[in-house]
């Protein structure tokens, strides 16, 4: 029998104590093992994790979790009862999935998840929040969700903590709440800007809440009338289902739903083709170069993609902002003319190096998508991350759409 016990700093339940008393194998991270004093006296509990009383436990084999595969092998071949100690709710981005994928049934005794605990400490609702994990996986999709969604909880990991996420969100109007050592005596809640998060060193483990706006979230002034989006409140009215709907109710919206002031606007039929080709969605970054009224940028953002709109005309930049606000989406606007304005995007030095390397391998004619003067360029990016600390950068896409008016939409691969 395998029992997975969630831990959140609270005393173990009687069922958890009974499972530990019967176990002949116990596995867990070092901090979890150290929190149960009778398991392994040689593991000195750190100050951040006071020991949970547990007495009269029989000798048990103890596995300190590092690489997961060898631990799962040992658990699968163990003859006897086993207990796995895990953080919070082990069924929520936790080890229960790995056990089930190995065909190992288990009983789960969950604690409060770190995400629920972080929102509770901040005093915020989270039924409208997106939850992403950057632990032991590519962090770039998680960062793009933070760019697009007004309320996100990030389960952090090595190489993608509050500092790295803060650096990646330079240019986006966001506030952070960093929750360190939740459930322990060393618990700490810090609200800061992305720039402040990028400049600090943070203690592990931690969870980051990324919320839209620049004003204080925890101490928000409810009398503020600036109209700024603030992730502290609900993001889309009353909720009756979770997770929130990710796909908009309609797309290729009528042209009258955008303020174009008699300027050229991408026709609905062309936008429908562009959306079908780009397939925007959560975790992706879309660049709209020559955004005009921002109709394509707004449509992509409505599908949950992070969007950067580049536009050289100041009045059109205002219209892009107004159209994004009208449809309740977040579009980052970069004023200027391509290609110079593209340097304002995330991680462009690394992207430039990749483009030069690509030209050397494939020839200048196949270096990437281009646009004729005066025409817009829309590219979906899988967002190849920046390892240098300036934030994830857009990387090779799986196809871009060139827009030049009705009947002139095409697709090309890098």
Features:
12 helices; six-stranded mixed sheet; Methyltransferase, Cobalt-precorrin-4 Transmethylase, Domain 2; five-stranded parallel sheet; Rossmann fold; Cobalt-precorrin-4 Transmethylase, domain 1
Tell me what you see in this structure.
The protein is an alpha/beta fold and 414 residues long. The protein has three domains: 2-112, 3-Layer(aba) Sandwich (Cobalt-precorrin-4 Transmethylase, domain 1), CATH 3.40.1010.10; 115-212, Tetrapyrrole methylase, C-terminal domain (Methyltransferase, Cobalt-precorrin-4 Transmethylase, Domain 2); 255-412, Rossmann fold. Helix content is 26%, strand content 19%. It is built from twelve helices and 16 strands. The protein has a six-stranded mixed sheet with strand order 13-12-11-14-15-16. Strands 3-2-4-1-5 form a five-stranded parallel sheet. Strand 12, helix 11 and strand 13 (332-335) form a beta-alpha-beta unit. The model is unreliable at 40-56, 349-376 and 382-414 (pLDDT under 50).
């Amino acid at each position: 029998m395998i029992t997975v016990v969630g831990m959140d700093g609270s005393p173990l339940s009687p069922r958890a104590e009974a499972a530990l008393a019967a176990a002949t194998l116990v596995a867990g991270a070092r901090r979890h093992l150290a929190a149960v004093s009778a398991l392994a006296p040689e593991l000195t509990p750190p100050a951040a994790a006071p020991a949970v009383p547990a007495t009269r436990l029989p000798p048990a084999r103890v596995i300190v979790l590092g690489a997961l595969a060898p631990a799962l092998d040992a658990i699968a071949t163990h003859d006897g009862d086993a207990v796995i100690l895990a953080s919070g709710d082990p069924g929520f981005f936790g080890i229960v999935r790995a056990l089930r994928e190995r065909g190992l049934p288990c009983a789960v005794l969950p604690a409060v998840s770190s995400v629920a605990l972080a929102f509770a400490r901040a005093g915020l609702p989270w039924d409208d929040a997106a939850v992403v994990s950057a632990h032991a996986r590519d962090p770039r999709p998680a960062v793009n969700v933070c760019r697009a969604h007004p309320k996100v909880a990030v389960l952090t990991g090595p190489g993608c903590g509050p500092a790295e996420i803060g650096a990646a969100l330079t240019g986006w109007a966001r506030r952070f709440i960093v929750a360190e050592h939740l459930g322990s005596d060393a618990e700490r809640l810090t609200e800061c800007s992305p720039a402040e998060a990028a400049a600090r060193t943070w203690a592990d483990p931690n969870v980051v809440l990324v919320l839209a706006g620049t004003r204080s979230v925890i101490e928000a002034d409810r009398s503020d009338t600036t109209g700024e989006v603030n992730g502290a409140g609900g993001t889309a009215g009353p909720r009756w289902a979770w997770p929130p709907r990710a796909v908009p109710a309609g797309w290729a919206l009528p042209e009258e739903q955008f303020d174009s002031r008699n300027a050229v606007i991408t026709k609905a039929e062309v936008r429908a083709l562009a959306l079908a080709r780009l397939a925007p969605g959560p975790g992706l970054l879309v660049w709209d170069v020559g955004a005009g009224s921002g109709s394509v940028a707004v449509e992509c953002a409505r599908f949950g993609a992070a969007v950067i709109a580049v536009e050289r005309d100041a009045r059109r930049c205002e219209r892009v902002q107004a159209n994004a606000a009208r449809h309740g989406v977040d579009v980052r606007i970069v004023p200027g003319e391509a290609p110079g304005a593209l340097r304002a995007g995330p991680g462009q030095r690394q992207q430039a190096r990749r483009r030069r390397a690509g030209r050397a391998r494939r020839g200048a004619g196949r270096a990437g998508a281009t646009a004729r003067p005066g025409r817009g360029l829309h590219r979906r990016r899988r967002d190849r991350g920046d390892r240098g600390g300036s934030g994830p950068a857009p990387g090779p896409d799986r196809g871009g759409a060139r827009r030049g008016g009705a009947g002139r939409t095409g697709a090309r691969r890098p």
